[in-house]
Amino acid sequence: MLKKEDNEKLCRTDAGTPMGEVFRRYWIPALLTEEVPEKDCPPVKVKLLGEELVAFRDSDGKVAILDAYCPHRRAHLFWGRNEECGLRCVYHGWKFDKDGKCVDMPNEPEESRFKHKVQLTAYPTWEKSGIVWAYMGPKEEQPEPPDYEWLRAPETHFQVSKTYEGCNWLQGLEGGIDTSHSSFAHNNNIQDKSSMRSRATNPKLEVDKTDYGFKYVGIRDLKEDGNYIRAYQFIMPAQQMRGQMMKWHDGSREEYPTIRGHIWVPIDDESVWVWNFKYTSEPSIPLDPEFSMQQEILFGRGPDDMLPGYRLVRNPSNDFLIDRELQRTKTFTGITGINTQDYALQETMEKPFPDRTKERLGTADLAIIAARQMLLEAARDVEAGRQPKGVDPESYRHARACDQFLQKGVDWREGLKEDMYAKY
């Protein structure tokens, strides 16, 4: 269980809150490149860490992220004109460049110097792998841009998407780093008793803390077949990576072995952007587009599964289209889409976030416990003026995930040493 004050501290991410200040020490995904696809395209609304923002790509191709409200009369800049390297408010014509400087004030006298006194909040951006990243923290604390292995994979080997989830960010993260639930919530063939996750529903968890977060494994004892080990990485403050080199049902090698993961970026205290990425684990194997699309559909993110705004067709308003006959005869949940199954469980927890003082955690929850410890430690570090773990890209640039069979008695730290070291 978690103390009430610690639960509040972990869940709330507005400016000035402990966890909000932690997130503001890292570069975080803000929007997809496809949302601002070309110079002078329409601006888009963005909300991150409780802040209402607006993004636009200027005439030089640079992406800007600004406070959403004009400092004149607080009109929303989403309505603005994106033109000639700036965003012009349509209420009175005030114009702001990518750095938030007011460069034109046409409703004031021509000789007025007033525009030079007006500054809009602007956040630094960095664009890589189809993602526009933002840094929302103190200028003097700004780290180098991220250097995850998946950001170094070529476009032919990599795929990224995002989905809206209507719950607190910590629910999403804790669901992602929970290992044993895949034997239940994601059992899509309850008749198959031979799959690896059905043969061993209680994986043994081991967690090793690092200078960027922690690495952990779920060890499933498959008796005479040895141990099936899935090795994960948790990179501060909200990223999980996992191996998908083997097929879930029989342990055979995937034709396109991948490493996959998520980053959970708080929108506000009751909603989160879930960033989904996958890349091939072998530099010699490009990611087949057809396979990638099949996987998106399998996970509930196919074209027919999405509404505008990266929201799911299956959602709380229609009970995630649960099929009780499917649940009785075929799948454990009766809900279609692997990640959709997660969302159904997480979005329908208590609002604005679960009362974790009532939880009863077991050995299957070691990774969740470790994540909470590290996040609270990060909050203490930031409050004390120290740099939290995982800010320096050098600390995690070699980290990768995997899954593999190991003989009984072989320690995963040695047996998977090469598999958990970046190849890109």
TrEMBL record:
Rieske domain sequence ranges: 27-134
Pfam families documented for this protein: LigXa_C, Rieske
PROSITE patterns assigned: RIESKE, RING_HYDROXYL_ALPHA
Keywords attached to this entry: 2Fe-2S, Iron, Iron-sulfur, Metal-binding, Oxidoreductase
The keyword Metal-binding belongs to this UniProt entry's keyword annotation: yes
Example GO molecular function: 2 iron, 2 sulfur cluster binding
Transmembrane segments annotated in the record for this chain: none
Record flagged with keyword Metal-binding: yes
Domain of life: Bacteria
InterPro entries in UniProt: ARHD_Rieske_2Fe_2S, Cholesterol_7-desaturase, LigXa_C, Rieske_2Fe-2S, Rieske_2Fe-2S_sf
This protein's name: Rieske domain-containing protein
Organism in which the protein naturally occurs: Domibacillus iocasae
